[in-house]
């Protein structure tokens, strides 16, 4: 400890150096001498911790809204365990290269249909353990690069195909622990790459509405946990595995469809189209005829009032609107 004597020069220098190097830890560096960041450096939202790799860690900070200041270099945004109860339109503005977005456990109740606008590069989205009951049509439509979506642990009783839209690259969709009793017929139509579907913990009702799901399960025999999916109702089918229904089991559903719904579709569809077309045409021509007649009838009266004598001269005749007018008075 003798070396730390203040009377000798080198230790004092050392101490000074030490203090200087510690400085940023306890005093804010004046902006004037802050080292300038290279272009494209991660602009970290205040309150979050950012890493060079492009990760913004905003986990468990009690945040009530998405932090401002997101920038393009942010590739991973961890917002789990906060209090983002709603997501407004274009909620992640600036983070246009986002790859992973973690929104687990936020008490999320509503997501604006335009919340995910601008996230065309997003591949992994985790919305699990929230309180979503519905999702607006088009919510996930901008996420054209999405590969994995988790909606597990919400309160969804219905998942409209329009909410997902066409997601050509979606491989994994987790819907477990929701309130789903069936899946809509069109749900799988625009998810061609889907091969992992989490379905456990839903009150499946084994009726005609379950057909799309049973068809999908048959086409994907290696889907995880398929064997563990059980009907919750109706009574006589309770606890029957979903995979126990061959396509034959739905034959009566198909007939039902053909008999009534198809007739309605085939009859009403074209008829209503033709009817509305005819109505539009009739209305359009009536309006046009009326206008034309009125213009013809009122044209002389609609002309501008006669000018004072000093302005009404040969110049007035050369004006364009006077060409359809009755011959100028002599
Ligand atoms: C994010 O930060 C929290 C606390 O600030 C930490 O517990 C957690 O491990 C971090 N997550 C990652 C993936 O670095």
From TrEMBL:
Domain LRRCT: 202-254
Any one annotated GO CC term: voltage-gated potassium channel complex
Subcellular location: Cell membrane
Molecular function GO terms recorded: potassium channel activator activity; transmembrane transporter binding; voltage-gated potassium channel activity
Keywords: Cell membrane, Disulfide bond, Ion channel, Ion transport, Leucine-rich repeat, Membrane, Repeat, Signal, Transmembrane, Transmembrane helix, Transport
Transmembrane segments: 263-287
UniProt name for this protein: Leucine rich repeat containing 26
